[in-house]
Backbone:
């Protein structure tokens, strides 16, 4: 199939998602918003996990920093969203630069454990610094941004404020994913893949491996912070639980389940995890056991992730068709 005849599936998916406030219920919009935000969070992690080969157990720290920066600026200081949102990404990137400077000096398990240590430091600060973060009470009632300008768009005048914020979130996530996709496909992204496959050889040919890993760390942290900023407004509050280590485990599962070798694998993993979590909790109190069993089956049946399994099946069918 030539490039001119390729179906723009990505554009079609985002157009379909944009119709949710009109064709779905309020719950559908809520679920779609959570999936979209988690998709950005998972893709930001996969820049480290799948592209660079760095296993981070503390990626939630940058998610939490972005959520707190945006929440504090908007609620405490009345800063408009148009300034608070990029500030959240910059704040998370700055913290990623500081923590990453120490983390990338270590390798494999030591790197992973040091990222976990930094995330626990962030959690402790968020939990204890009552005057700024609200401590264990968090920052409830984060205000929605001013979205009156959306009323000028066709058919948007009668939408609820939550629906308007969903559309804004979808647009920002779409732009963020487009930028991340460009980064992964760029010479910088290909160099990260080279480092992942053979860091010794990359260093031998003169590549500054640590500098590239630190740059990937900062970029991943910035987009995780953007996801955190959106999540804080979406959930109408920022709490210390957002930076607890279990949130990192959840996003790692999203990336691996969807297929960390594919750019669109983590969003698929986010879709499956969020949807299963919502559906299973509605039917049984033993949802952790049921969810864990389903995930085990999926991971054993599809070791390359869901997208990897679909890709392998499509390649096999196409090969048979040609034969």
Residues:
């Amino acid at each position: 199939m030539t490039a001119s005849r390729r179906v723009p599936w990505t554009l079609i998916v985002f157009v379909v998602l944009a119709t949710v406030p009109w064709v779905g219920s309020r719950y559908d919009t809520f679920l779609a918003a959570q999936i979209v935000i988690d998709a950005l969070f998972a893709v930001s992690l996969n820049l480290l996990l799948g592209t660079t080969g760095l296993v981070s157990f503390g990626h939630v720290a940058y998610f939490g920093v972005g959520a707190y920066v945006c929440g504090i600026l908007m609620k405490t200081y009345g800063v408009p969203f148009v300034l608070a949102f990029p500030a959240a990404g910059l704040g998370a990137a700055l913290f990623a630069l500081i923590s990453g400077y120490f983390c990338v000096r270590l390798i494999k398990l030591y790197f992973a454990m040091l990222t976990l240590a930094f995330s626990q430091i962030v959690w402790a600060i968020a939990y204890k610094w009552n005057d700024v973060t609200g401590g264990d009470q968090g920052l409830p009632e984060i205000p929605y941004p001013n979205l009156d300008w959306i009323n000028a768009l066709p058919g948007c005048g009668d939408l609820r404020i939550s629906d308007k914020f969903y559309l804004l979130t979808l647009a920002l996530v779409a732009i963020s994913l487009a930028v991340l996709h460009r980064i992964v496909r760029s010479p910088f992204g290909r160099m990260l893949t080279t480092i992942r496959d053979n860091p010794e050889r990359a260093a031998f040919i003169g590549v500054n491996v640590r500098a590239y890993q630190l740059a990937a760390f900062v970029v991943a942290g910035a987009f995780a912070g953007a996801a955190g900023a959106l999540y804080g407004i979406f959930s109408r509050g920022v709490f210390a639980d957002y930076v607890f280590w279990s949130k990192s485990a959840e996003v790692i599962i999203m990336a691996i389940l969807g297929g960390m070798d594919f750019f669109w694998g983590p969003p698929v993993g986010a879709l499956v995890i969020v949807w299963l979590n919502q559906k299973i909790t509605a039917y049984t109190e033993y949802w952790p056991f049921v969810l864990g069993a389903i995930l085990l089956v999926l991971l054993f049946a599809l070791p390359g992730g869901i997208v990897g399994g679909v890709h392998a099946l499509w390649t096999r069918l196409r090969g048979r068709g040609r034969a």
The mean pLDDT is 90. Strands lie at 139-140, 237-238.
